[in-house]
Amino acid sequence: MTPPTTAAPARDGSREFAVGSLVHARGREWVVLPDSTPELLVLRPLGGTEDDIAGVLPALEEVEHARFAPPSPSDLGDQAAAGLLRSALRIGFRSSAGPFRSLAGISVEPRPYQLVPLLMALRQETVRLLIADDVGIGKTVESGLIAAELLAQGDARGLVVLCSPALAEQWRAELRGKFGIDAELVLASTIGRLERSRLYGQSVFRPDRNYVVSTDFIKSPRHRDDFIKNCPDLVIVDEAHTCVADTGQGGARQQRQQRYTLLRALADDPNRHLLLVTATPHSGKEEPFRNLLGLLDERLETISLDRQAGRDLLAQHFVQRRRADIRDDFREDANFPSDRKSREDDYTLHPDYRRLLDEVISYARETIRSADGALQQRIRWWSALALLRALGSSPAAVRKTLHTRAGVQDADSVTEADAIGSRTVTDPADDEAAESADAVPGALLAPGAADPDAAALGEEDRARLLAMAEAAEALKGPAKDRKLKQLIDTVKELLAEGYNPIVFCRFISTAEYVKEHLDAALNKGRKGTAGKKAYAVEAVTGELSPDQRVARIAALTEEDEDGEAPPERRVLVATDCLSEGVNLQESFDAVVHYDLAWNPTRHEQREGRVDRFGQRRDVVKAVTLYGSDNAIDGIVLDVLLRKHARIRKATGISVPVPDSSENVMQAVLEGLILRGERPQYEQEGLFAVESAAGRQTAELHQAWQSAAERETASRSRYAQNAIKREEVAKEVAEVRASLGTGEEVRRFTRHALTALRGVPGPLPGEPDGFTMNSEALPAPLRDAFTTLLGPRHPRPVAFHDAPTAPRGEVALTRTDPVVASVARFVLDAALDDQMDQWQRPARRCGVVRTTAVAKRTTLLLVRYRFQLSLPGRDGVLRQQLAEDARLLAFRGAAANPDWLPEDEAVALLEARASQNTDRALAQERIEGVLGSLESLMPTLEERGEQLAARLLDSHRRVRGAFRDVRGATGPARRGLRVDVQGRPDVLGVYHYLPVPVLDGTTTNGEAR
Fold it and tell me: Average pLDDT for residues 565-572, to the nearest whole number?
């Protein structure tokens, strides 16, 4: 490797080694990092990563100041050498000189619109934000960016994410995989191990650690007080709308009240950062919405949001955007599907199925009418409704329901019966526990139920129930279950179009039934490769633990333990345990609603699993199945789902159904079930305005429309306007100037691997992606591919032009581990002139004859290091390191240089050789430039000071004063400084010569 020049040793223990300075120790060169003290230097190898950091004691080991050696004139590269070296250097930066300290070290490339909440957060002394962007926009990324930046700056010492236990593992994986934040899981299943590992009297929690915690577990009095006392100073609350309650009643409200009590205690600490994350902050009820806002600023609980002062205060803490808003503001950077195509597929009931439906309705009517008292009538009503809903789902659900005791039987009052029935039979808007709501609710008069009413059943009633169960059993299979047959046809069509669908069912028994028959139908007479099925079908339900659900999905979408690639054609059958929070967009791109949810929000949540940020398909599909002659389906469609779809199409907003919807649904259903003895119930007369149910339906729709109009007006009124698009564009430009662009990453990766004897090929369906045969790559790179992608990763390796990639494949982003390993190899090889020449595609110098210049021009690749002094909210200045790589170019001789603007210097990277250059002449030219470097150094150092001033300005800009309604300014932190550290390193020298013409001069008459 090219040796550096060194200065005099410094072993006296004094702080001579400033942050960012270059030192020589242990036979190599290192960069001094911010955690260094006079007694202990924390060092990172030059060109190394965070994994290579080491500690050195200057009093015991020889440490010398070092200067980076200039390149060797004989180490000449071709026309692409400069671009490859620059890109390798920039991709390898983990302490970049941009305005954000964390972006260089995270594994996700945020879209510009996702920087808006981060800019809002950095303008607050203590961060208090409600991030309420629509489903699928990327709220996890947005909150993760804020957390990573606060931790990187030192404004937060530790992190806690409060979430559902079903989403805890996913949150931990997101934090680790995308943001490099390792977090401990705190759940009912892990607390025992954590308590055993702590010292006596010590808390499980520490303020300087990171945790993902089950909200429902930690809200209990046993653990709550200890958690509040030792909670880290940064808290993210996922699905925050489930943590506030109104004046309603029931167990769900009590659960919410306990969560709210916990959050209120955390929010009472004025120094605690609090990020609330939800796609549904306003469920149509003002009180819980105001309680949520009050966690951010107590004034927001009562201040009028109709006045400008209230809107200004809200704008500091609240960001809520629709997809249309983002497409209008950021256009090509949206990165989610451009369209969601929805359709309805109908079917007609088989005559035998229709007979059973009529029999169930008759039985329900009779049992309800014969009830003794209001309580027993409500119990029987909910039991009958449970049986009807099960019948609409599947024969398997009917049989299970008839053999399951109804939970509603435990009710002691009509109010309690309605609360239990609503929670277990319908899909109420305030039921946040979807992951545990997929068991059949049971029927009151099930045989063998331990209930006085059941014991009083006569032989005739018992025989009737048994006959229903047997009739349901006979309906199994696509021959008589036409809904199942329609599903098979729909799924086959989607698969033929290249889609991988998720089929959502209401009940566990239905999901298992559908999975069994769908698997058999799709794979009948078909065989895949290596003896496997042509189509992979799996079911995920609430019977599985959160970890088991993750494992089941991984088995369907990721390579197995032997390195076998996942099936290309797959179908996931799931209940609503997967309808919220779980990201499935990388492996699935269509949704089929096998069972109609009795709440439109549930449909929106289901479709949001695939229609979200990171989905590679431009158009996703959603298909709703319904029985055209099933009156129950007709009611749900006409009262709820179609109205919701019309509002969403007209406004672009998913407006929650008003609270009165459940009462309306019950009124309509009662009209169907209790209206008479007719064997058939036509839909035409259900919604006549003259009927009571018709009037209630019309009133519901009118209230819903009014709510949509209010929501549209409020979104316009409360639209995010604290951060303008122009501000974001400026910061994005700074980030890209420091870290590079996605296009640069794509070009570098393909060019470098091809130069290293990789064989590129097309990637089907991705014009900007490619495949790469890696068998002939240098051994260190092949080993890195095996380590990072798995020993039996797919070959050739797929490189996706996307923020994420399936397991065993590569995303063309600067932080993808494979891309980073390629950049590291190219940079190390350029600095080591002892390596085989074919393994060194980038060189530190070169001479190119080209028509791109009219006069000899020299391009310098210069690396700068800066020491940042960032003042924290505690008043402490924190020293941090920043690195930058810049291209500087001048025309003419080094003795009298004509310096070019930066954009013209960068444009030289595109110059192509027009003629060969004599090697002896090339070495002579490079030697001349290298001999003049010292005379150029004052200009290079001046450019460094200009970059430092620019960096200082960008840090001040993103942390600018945030003026609130009282006229007070936000973070007024003193001491922010950016200082150039040491002399700039000249990594590359590239000389461009104009092409000579026949008269013996160059194209502009300059002598050769």
Answer: 82
